[in-house]
Each structure stands twice: as C-alpha cells, then as structure tokens.
Amino acid sequence: MEGLNGKRVLVTGGASGIGAATAERFLDEGAKVVVLDRDQLGCERIKKTLPQLAGVIRADVSDAGAVADAFDELDEMLGGLDVLINNAGISIRHDFLEITAEEWRQVMDVNLNGVFYVAQQAARRMKAAGAGVIINTGSTNAIMGYPFYADYNASKAGVLELTRSMALELAPDVRVVAVCPGYIMTPMQEAEYTPEMIDEVNSKIPLRRHGRPEEVAALFAFLASDEAAYITGQTYIIDGGEIAGGLASR
Questions:
Q1: Is 159 a residue whose pLDDT tops 80?
Q2: Which of 162, 182, 219, 246 has its CA 20 to 30 A from that of 133?
Q3: Structurally, how many domains does the chain consist of?
Q4: Active-site residue 152, yes or no?
Q5: What average pLDDT does the segment 3-19 reach?
Q6: Residue 200 structural domain
C-alpha cells in the first residue's frame, strides 16, 4: 500500500486475533508498530511472535488514566503517531434478561469508552501534527440485530456514531473511518461458539465460511494508506455477504 512505509502505528487489542494479524500486516508494509493490550501473557507472546515490533504496552483501554500513561510511553517509543487501529474489544454471550449491571458496564467500558479514550489521545497528537488516520473497529452487530449480545451490539453501534462525529470534527487533518467485521475466526469467536454453531453460521454466510483475521488486516492497511486519502467518515463492512440479504436469506 502507498504511504505506509515508515508510518508510526498503534494497534490496540493487538496481542491476538485481528489485532495481531493487523500488527503483522503493517510491519510487512514497513511501518513502525506498537501493540497495546491488557493481557500480560498475550503481550509476552506477541513480543516473541513479532520481534520486529517497535514496542508493546500493557494497558487497559477502559481506564482513562492508564490510556494517558500509555500514550506518554508511546511518545517515547515512536515520537508521535500517524495511524491508530482502535481495535480492543470484548464480548459476553448471554441472554438479555440475564445481563447484570456490572457486565453491561464492563462491555461498555472497553468497547465504547475505551475507543473514545484511545481515539482522543491519538487525535490530539495527530491534530497537532496536522495529519493522521484513525480506524475504529465496529461490527456487523452495530448494524443488524443479533440475539444474546445486547450490550455488545449497543457498544458497537456507539462506535459508529462516534466515528462519524470524529470525522467531521477532525477533518481535514485527520481521517476517521470504521471497519465492521462479521464472523471472523478469532480466539474470542472460538471461545464462544462450538464447532456445531460455527458450521451453522457458515451455512448462512454467502461465502460459506468465517473470515480470516488477515483479511480484516488487509482492509485496515488499505484504509490507512495514501490510496484511501479521500475516504473519511464512512463504515466498511467485511462479512462474506452475511448481512446483504434480509429475512429470506436467513
């Protein structure tokens, strides 16, 4: 991709799944990449898997103070930031009637508040520098109704509106977009779905399979590149055609 070589990139939730694949893709593009994640074991593992990383920061994005400290650390590592992949997120599969107040707060704190805290820190630096790209990870759950994920769905819907608002306020210096993956085969997905459930889902997806983290990483790379220089404020779906149809397709 044009314009990614030498770019300073932060990937949150970068120790596994889509985040880890994204960190690897940007390294392949010649970028200087720092991974941020709250999982200590994951951080240690990604250091070994991708030794060419510019750094790994352990922090919880749901803690505004921890995010501020993490960006101070990032400044020392990279001296600034050109691209943010705002990817950290969690989900809990459960019935709407059984969601506790604490579980609701937990999901919102990571998936919406965390996206805001990280994006604001990044945007301040990018606006001061006069350029930058922020890509927030949404979900097809932000666009369609899905049972058993009411808190997750609501949090991701918030991410899309936050993205649009940021794009308007941060233009023309900073581009802001959202990527909405559908069913992607990540450790989080494998933990929540049995093989039988995965097979059932695949039978309903037009491309008849889950996506791969590397495919989402490729979309991130394009949107962050100079080839997407006229794109901002939009949402991009990568779902194998899952939500293209309505009730009849299901």
A1: yes
A2: 182
A3: 1
A4: yes
A5: 97
A6: 8-237
